[in-house]
Every structure is written in structure tokens, then in C-alpha cells.
Amino acid sequence: MLQYIIKRLLLLPLLLFIFTIIAFILIQAPPGDFLTSYIAELAASGSSMDRAQIDALRTLYGLDQPMVIQYFKWLGRLLTGDLGVSLDWQRPISELIGDRLTLTLLLGGGTFIFTWLIAIPIGILSATRKYSFFDYFFTVFNYIGVATPTFMTALVLMWISFKYYGINISGLFSAEYVDAPWSLARTLDLLKHLWLPIVILGMDGTARLARVMRANLLDELNKPYMEMARAKGMSEWRLVMKYPVRLALNPLVSTIGWYLPLIFSGSVIVATVMNLPTIGPMLLRALISQDMYLAGTIILIYMVLAVIGTLISDILLVWLDPRIRMEKTG
Amino acid sequence: MSAIPVNATADADPADDFDIAPNWKLVWWRFRKHKLAMVSAVILMLIALVALFPDFFSTQAPHKTNARESFIPVQGMHLFSEEGLGLHAYQVVGKRNPTTLKMEWRADGDKIIPLGFFVKGYEYSVFGLFNSSRHLIGPKDSSSRERVHFLGTDRLGRDQWSRLAHGTRVSLSIGLVAVMFSIIIGIVLGGISGYYGGWVDMVIQRLIEILQSLPPIPIWMALTASLPRDWSVEQTYFAITIILSLIGWTTLGREVRGRFLALREEDFVTAAKLSGCSQMRIIFRHMLPAFTSHIIATSTLAVPVMIINETFLSFLGLGLRPPAISWGVLLQEAQNLQSVALAPWLLLPGIAVILTVLALNILGDGLRDAADPYN
């Protein structure tokens, strides 16, 4: 098993290398280089940058050199931990992203835990009470949950709470804590705001995971070992929880691989609508103002987060399921 | 004993039919049993009709602005009035609120606008073939300045009902075209991967894995944001369908590969090989038809995903841009709490998205179940 994990970890640098290439291509994708468009933008707004400053930036990013060299220069700076400067914000990217990244991870992680906590019981109940009212209710809920764009849910909830309760539920902090340093009170305030985006972001996933869990469990419930255990007089509830549920969880673990990237990917939209201080809205702003190095860095972060998700799912799967363990190492 | 012949004669014809029915007929029979999927199919046909003839369903030209009529709320249709039975709406009158300076629209119970079907309205062209000015529904007296806005108006006083009809065409077709591109890439690459195997398969599989591990929305955002701003609506439209299918093909590619791998070992393929069929003939004549129904079902399920993704992108302002009209572009008007609080009806195009996606998902599920011979 250890061997397998090491193999996977060794693949990681290669994958990251491919990701940096993709991110760099995306940085270069807009027509014209970003510095020219930035200078044009400055000129349009009436301010300007002096010649020396422009030349300094030009050599820093190697804009006068071929693409490949530009890429390796960028990669070299990334490896030394220098993410560069955001032209739009006029601040180092690492400084801009730091706090927002924590909140992004918190939002993503919270959503993930929420979905699993809700989806598994729903899945178990729908499978054991197949074709009951409860089962049908969640079938309908599943279809609607998947069909509703997350921003719609967010907007409708925001509107309802604004109209009927007069509160604005956007953002992650109350006004007095927005720029305050981290403290216990600020953390509590964060938790008070965080649950709603988590619920909105997790609705779609909860519906999907509950369906997967239901289907997996239904496959297990018809197996002969169930009959055997019942014949031996095992109580139904204990039986279900002890064997089929554990087996049905394995395929669910393999969904982490695609579900985590989906959460982080979807959080961009919810965060934009709800005005959350995560890296999502920052990406949107960076893309619109063509602040491409900031955008590229954020996309790279999203890709790394996605790969970590896949890695966790693979390792968990090997750890949980002896059949896979045998196959992979043997 | 006597019951058997009776049953046999009663079932004789269908049973014979069943034995000789081609595959598509079997699929159709199974599909027909899925009531909800049939209902969805009917709903989708109606939506497709709107997409084909948006002008016929509109009451006003979709781009027509009228600053004096901004943010009119939803206007109801009524059947009974003092004058008797007849479909009608009430004219709205605006009054500026003296404290908030906001226009407040109220239906005037005295001013009745009679509505009729197949009325004359603005003139439009149908696929450039002929011109017409007939509309499904609208005020009977088209010459008058009275207008109705079934779904209200937006910031610029544009009629949301008519814009929704026009958005249907773009949103629905973008989903279909993007899936079509995905099918082409998916079948070609998935087919090559599954049929040839070996290192080609290895490379394509790794490519699919990398693409699938990418977070789609940020990537799409970056790609669409890099489209030149001066491109025409048509150019952006096609660029977006291609961008969406760049990641979208992977699911289908996997599916096709799996089928090819399974079919490669089948006896009928070996038989075809031994009789000297060319590879192209084996693939297109013998292998592809064996899983077309499956591809259709999977593609049907991919269309709603594409529609939602286009809505996401346009909503964020990175997809289609005005003057193009799609559901996402319409929803962009309701991008923040302020606009929604001011004009909640701007969220109504979202209902169209939900309804369409719901119907497509149910239809796709029904097709998938029907196409599965082991069901």
C-alpha cells in the first residue's frame, strides 16, 4: 500500500508541471500581451506609468523574449515562491491571496463535510425504505437540486431573507469584522455567515451523492449474506449498518476524486453572487481586467486543489478496500 | 391447460412483432412505458418550438428598448371582466414615488387591453424565407400604444417575455451544438483508444484523466475571457460551444472506449474481420450501431449540463455578451441582491433553465433505461 501511495506521490510533480503549462497557456491566451493592455487602460483612465517602470516590468516577465523562455522564467519564480505582482491591485499576489485562500478552503471543506453528513443518511434511508414517500421525496429533490443553477438558489435565498427578514446575508463577515484581525469573535462571526453558502453549494452534491449511496446500497441489500444474517437473527438495523453500508461507502469514496474539484469549481459562482471574500470573485475580476498573472495563479491553485482531491480519494480507497489494495500492489 | 392457448392467441401478434422488431422499436416500446419521460418529451418539443420560432411567441421585438417603461412588474392575464368573458390584461400606469423617486407601476382596473390569439404585431422574418407579423398572443388592437408585458420589463424597458423566447433559441442550441462537438471528439478519440489499444489508448486515457481532474468552471472562465472583445455574436457563440466541448467530450470518450473494448472481443466482430471487412466498415457498420442508442442517451444527459454551464458563464459576464440573448445573459440582469430586490421578476428566466434541464434529465434517464437491453 505504501508503495502505491509513493507511486502516486511521484506522479504528482509531473502533473503539476502539466498544470503550470496549462495555466501559462491561459495567461497567454488573451490577444496582445497584458502589459500593453494595462498601459492602454492606464492611459484611458488618465494616469500613466513612467518608462523605467514599464521597462522593469517588461524584463521581469521577459516579455521581449520567446514564449518558452517566458514560461520557464515564470516557473522559476513560482518554484522560489515568488508569485509575482498583480498589476490591477498593485500588490504582491501572495499577499492578496493568503487570507482568501484560507476562506476558500474553509468553504470547500465545509461543503464537503456537510454533503457527506447529509447525503449518507438520506441514501441509507431511501434505500432501506425503497419506494416510500421519503424515497420519492428525495428523488424529486434530487432532480430539482441538479437542475437548479447554484446562483439561482443563492439569489432566491438572499432575496427572501432580505424581503421578509430585512437582513443581507451576503459576505462572510459582519461589517465590523471585515477588516479586523483574526480573533475568537471574528471566527464565530465567520461561522455564523459560512453555513448558508455551504448549504447552497452543497445542495447539488448532496442530491447526487445520496443517489449514488442509494444505488450502491440497493445492490448490496439483495445479496445472500443479508439473508444469512437475518436467518441468524441479527437485528435489521445493526445488520444494515454493519455490512452493506460499509461496502456501499467504497464507491462513494471514489466520488471524492471528481466531487472536490466540482465543489471548488462551483464555489466561484456562489462566491461571486454572495460576495464572499474567496479567490473565486478575485479570479473573475482578474480575468475581466486582464490581470493575467493573478488569474493564472488562481487557476493553478484551483487545479492543485482538484488534484489533492483525487489523491485523497485514491489513497482512501486503497486504505478502505482490500480488494483494490491487492490489485494495485500485487 | 385451456388458459394457455387463449393467452397465446391474444398475444400472438405482439409476440411476433417483438421477435422481429428492430432495436429502435424495442427501445421505443420500453421508453413509452416511462410516463414522466414521455411528459418531458412533450414539454421539450414545445420548448423546441419556441426555439424555432421565437418571434411568433413574442409580443414585442426583443431588442426594443423603452426607457419610460423600465422595471414594469409581471402583468397577469385575466378572463373575466365587467364587460364579460374575454382574455385581457390591465394597462399599467406608473407613478413616481415622491420619497424614493422610484417608479411604481400599478394595474389600472378600468383600462382593459383585450388579448387575442394569432394577432398582428411587429413584422419578422422566418428563417429568411418569408415575413410574417402574426404572433401567438398579444393585444388585439396592435395599432394602439397599449402594450402588455407578461413577464415584466428589465432595466431598459425591454419585454422579458419576448426576450425569454429569443433566449430559448440560443441557450437550447448552444447545448445541442456543444454536445454535438463533444460527440464527434468523443467518438473519434474514444473509438481510436478503444479499438487500437496499446500506447495510443494509454495516451488518450491519461489525457482524459488530466482533463477530468481540472476544475471546469475556472478553466472555462479563463478561456472565454480571452476571446477577443470585438468578435461578432456568431463568432463568440461558436467559440463558446467549442470551449464547452473541450472538457465535455471526456465522459463520452470514456463511454465509447469502454464499449469498443467490450465489443472488440465479440463474435460478430471476429466474423466480420474473417470475412475481410475493412476496419472502417467494421467500426462504422458493425460496431457503432451496436451502441448508438447508448450514445444518444448519454448525449441527452450531457445537453442539460452544457446549458447550465453556458448559463453560468453568461451570468458571470464571460459567456455570450449582449446584444446576444441567452438565458444566462437575461439572468445577468439579476446578478446581485440590489437588482433582485428591485425587480424580482428578473429571476424568472431561471425557471426556464430549471424546467428545461429537469425535462432533459428525465428524458435522458428514460432513454438510458430504455436503451439498456438488460433492464
Structure report:
The complex is a heterodimer of chains A (330) and B (375). Chain A is mainly alpha-helical and 330 residues long. Chain A has two domains: 15-79, no CATH class; 105-277, Orthogonal Bundle (MetI-like fold). Helix content of chain A is 78%, strand content 1%. Chain A has helices at residues 2-28, 34-44, 51-60, 67-79, 93-128, 133-147, 150-165, 184-221, 224-231, 236-242, 244-254, 256-274, 279-288, 292-320, 322-329; strands at residues 85-86, 91-92. A two-stranded antiparallel sheet of chain A has the order 1-2. The longest helix of chain A has 38 residues, at 184-221. Chain A is globular and about 85 Å long. In chain A, 33% of the residues are buried. The mean pLDDT of chain A is 83. In chain B, 59% of the residues lie in helices and 14% in strands. Chain B contains 14 helices and four strands.
Largest interface: A-B, 50 and 39 residues
- In DSSP terms (H or I, runs of 4 or more residues), the helix count of chain B works out at 14
Structural class of chain A: mainly alpha
Shape of chain A: globular
**What would CATH call the class of the largest domain in chain A?**
Mainly Alpha
Write the layout of secondary structure elements.
The complex is a heterodimer of chains A (330) and B (375).
Chain A: H1 2-28, H2 34-44, H3 51-60, H4 67-79, E1 85-86, E2 91-92, H5 93-128, H6 133-147, H7 150-165, H8 184-221, H9 224-231, H10 236-242, H11 244-254, H12 256-274, H13 279-288, H14 292-320, H15 322-329
Antiparallel strand pairs in A: 1-2
Chain B: H1 3-20, H2 23-32, H3 35-52, H4 54-57, E1 78-81, E2 84-96, E3 103-126, E4 130-139, H5 160-196, H6 198-213, H7 216-225, H8 233-264, H9 267-274, H10 279-287, H11 292-315, H12 327-332, H13 337-342, H14 349-371
Antiparallel strand pairs in B: 1-2, 2-3, 3-4
Helix pairs in contact in B: 2-14, 3-5, 3-14, 5-6, 5-8, 5-11, 6-8, 7-8, 8-11, 9-10, 11-14
